[in-house]
Amino acid sequence: MALEVVILAAGMGKRMHSVLPKVLHPVAGEPLLFHVIKTACALNAETVHVVTGHGGEMVQKRCQDLDPALYGKLSFHTQKEQLGTAHAVSCAMDGVKDGNTVLVLYGDTPLPDPALLEPLTHVPQEGMNLLTVKMRHPFGYGRIVRDAQGQVSHIVEEKDATESEKQISEVNSGILAASGATLKHYLPRIGNHNAQGEYYLTDLTGIMVADGRTVQTTVTEDEERLAGVNNKVQLADVERTCQKLRARKLMEEGVTLADPARIDIRGSVIHGKDCCIDINVILEGKVVLGDNVTIGAGCVIRNCEIGDNSVISPYTVMEDSVLKVHNTIGPFARLRPGNLLEDEVHVGNFVEVKKSHVGKGTKAGHLSYLGDSEIGKDVNIGAGTITCNYDGANKHRTVVGDDVFVGSDTQLVAPVTVEAGATIGAGTTVTRTVPAGSLVITRARPRIIENYARPVKAKKE
Fold first, then answer.
1. d(CA 38, CA 65)
2. For 190-199, 232-241, 352-361, which range has the lowest pLDDT when averaged over its residues?
3. Candidates 54, 185, 357, 366; catalytic one
4. Active-site residue, 366 included
5. Which tens digits make up the pLDDT trace of 39-49?
6. How far apart are CA 126 and CA 146, in angstroms?
């Protein structure tokens, strides 16, 4: 049977104290809901039904930011009134095929592992498979009650449990799988005879058992992966769990982390061998590291490719840039989007580079800005050099040839070209083409005034 997934994402999330729908609050840099959608697609779901309610339009619009291959699998359904989990699943049933397996997931429970969920999707004929959790402290959760033969009898909530039932450590995760036909048959039989007047999906178990249907369980002890989010404290807890799992995966793959508790991965990391990452580093989007890459403390790297044997020194911020091999960046450098740095480039402290192609062996040691530039190989950029690329309306390019020496405190007023082998004296403002092999200096002749009386403030009376 093909698989369809229903994700319940209609809740308001009052305890989040936010205008943002609960499922759009971020974990690891993306909405809770996106994690669940990716899990569903990793299971090769034919269709992913997202049941929205509060902020439904906002949720649907945000989902457009997903990869088109994922977004194309989504089908949205509206739960106009929040009448419970069983009612929410019912809202998606019109789009579900009877012969398919249906897996029910939750938009505020972002961390279930596809490897854990896959066995759950093998459901018994006209039966159901529940995911249950063995918990150390099960207080507050619905307990799985079994008969003398060990078969599931029913689920009892904490408030209704006897003292012996409260000792049961196996609890209901809420995640289940059954055929479309089974759900369509049994969901209308769930009543709302409870204090909240809602239709609860947990009641499905007792009804099916009473009908002689098979209710199997897939049991896990991995509490952390099944933690849900109802408030900002739980959101922070899930964030830490997610980061711990991602850090562990990197280390298992051979990456050295100075402290796995102090790294944030908000995207994907592809890496070579012998990479080392210091504390408080944030990796966002798609980050690709070659072999023997070192990243210093406090760096923020977003959508970058960093080549072999490169060193990113502490507190560097980089985004949307490609660095080839043996680059050294920072400390306190900033690479804005659109850069290509060839081999052995050095971008030093308090240097900013934007939309520039920097040639092999070029060095900009400190306190410079290079924007909208084409810079050749083996160029020296002196301290305090800036490309004046913006005229107030448009951006213009600066072209610097190979083996150019740019002295300190130089202004290159774009559009301008400095040809190969030229030398620019310190303190020069360049406004026209500098010929190859020439020297340009634009210093004013110094004027010295002897016995100069410096102004002083008038004394207050």
1. 13
2. 190-199
3. 366
4. yes
5. 999 999 999 99
6. 20
